[in-house]
Amino acid sequence: LPVLRAPQIELADIQLERLSLNAADLLIRLRLANPNAFSMALELLQYDLTVGGSPWASGATGQTLAVAARGEQVLELPVSVDLSALGAGVYTALMQRRPLDYRLSGGARLSTGLALLPAADLPLDLAGTVELGR
Fold this sequence. Notes:
Elements: E1 8-19, E2 23-33, E3 40-51, E4 54-61, E5 65-67, E6 72-82, H1 83-86, H2 88-96, E7 100-111, E8 119-130, E9 132-133
Parallel strand pairs: 1-9
Antiparallel strand pairs: 1-2, 2-6, 3-4, 3-5, 3-7, 7-8
């Protein structure tokens, strides 16, 4: 029987694509690492991103991301943040490129291709600090 180990999901970075007085277009990059001796695929990701205590983005992606055995892949999530709803502090943090405190929660649906464990749901709850790239 294969031993299933949970994949590691981490927030790799947040890239600032465009910044105006009203909105910021961001690209959130999540890194998915598969420590198993068999491939798996991320079939669904539901997420809520909170930065500095303010909700920035939420949604779901049904894009399938295949990850080879003992491999890594990056999932890119384009989001738009309404700065008028979040306040001037967010705009200042983005302009000055300060590190951002975040919490990413939600869940992921994974498939393995194994007969004994064809699919699994993985809860997602990450927190930390991330640098803002351009």
